[in-house]
């Protein structure tokens, strides 16, 4: 791995662990082992390096979200995505950046974060519409709102897990979302059965 890539990887990890405000150029150099001259050769400022690292974190998040866009039963894809193993105590690499005041106040640093959530929202809406069209979920559900709800469950679950230093609240939040989706799916089946009588 070359020094540029090492710097981006190191900053990516430090952003996840500490945030932008609490990461100094010295922290980056010490962890990466890259010298000051090389660091500033590749990145004129900490902000430039942070932007590259945020882009990397976004690139890591989006392939996982694209699992929602796969093939097969859309409700099964949603359940699989909600229940896949995650390190809840570390939080979301992208979501944690919204809690960093220096990122929130800098439109350039916030842009990749906002873009990641917008792209994730599109995937959620698409799979929810697919589930409704397939009769897996009730057709009176609003996919746009439900997409925001499910994204909020994930991000809120991370916050609860970190606050309690226990992954159980995150796992419970995701399991609760699955329970609610199954209840909506069961209602659809019951409505279809009632109409046939």
Automatic annotation (TrEMBL):
Q: Name one GO molecular function term.
A: DNA binding
Q: Which PANTHER family match?
A: HTH-TYPE TRANSCRIPTIONAL REGULATOR LMRA, TRANSCRIPTIONAL REGULATORY PROTEIN
| UniProt feature coiled coil, ranges | none
Q: Name one Pfam family in it.
A: TetR_N
Domain HTH tetR-type, first and last residues per copy: 1-61
Q: Which residues bind DNA?
A: 24-43
Which SUPFAM superfamilies does this one have?
A: Homeodomain-like, Tetracyclin repressor-like, C-terminal domain
Q: What is the protein's name according to its record?
A: TetR/AcrR family transcriptional regulator
Print the keywords alphabetically. DNA-binding, Transcription, Transcription regulation
Q: Please name the InterPro entries in this protein's record.
A: Homeodomain-like_sf (IPR009057), HTH_TetR (IPR001647), Tet_transcr_reg_TetR-rel_C_sf (IPR036271), TetR_C (IPR011075)
The organism's superkingdom is given as: Bacteria
């Amino acid at each position: 791995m070359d020094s540029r890539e090492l710097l981006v990887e190191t900053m990516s990890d430090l952003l996840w662990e500490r945030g932008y405000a609490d990461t100094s150029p010295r922290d980056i150099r010490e962890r990466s082992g890259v010298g000051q001259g090389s660091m500033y050769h590749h990145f004129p400022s900490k902000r430039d390096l942070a932007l590259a690292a945020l882009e990397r974190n976004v690139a890591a998040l989006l392939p996982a979200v694209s699992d929602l866009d796969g093939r097969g039963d859309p409700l099964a894809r949603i359940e699989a995505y909600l229940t896949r193993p995650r390190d809840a105590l570390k939080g979301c690499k992208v979501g944690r950046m919204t809690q960093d005041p220096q990122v929130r106040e800098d439109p350039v640093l916030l842009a990749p974060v906002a873009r990641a959530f917008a792209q994730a929202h599109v995937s959620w809406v698409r799979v929810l519409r697919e589930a409704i069209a397939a009769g897996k979920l009730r057709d009176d559900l609003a996919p746009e709102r439900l997409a925001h709800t499910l994204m909020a469950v994930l991000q809120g679950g991370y916050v609860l897990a970190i606050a309690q230093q226990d992954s159980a609240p995150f796992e419970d939040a995701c399991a609760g979302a699955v329970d609610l989706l199954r209840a909506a799916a069961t209602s659809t089946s019951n409505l279809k059965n009632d109409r046939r009588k």
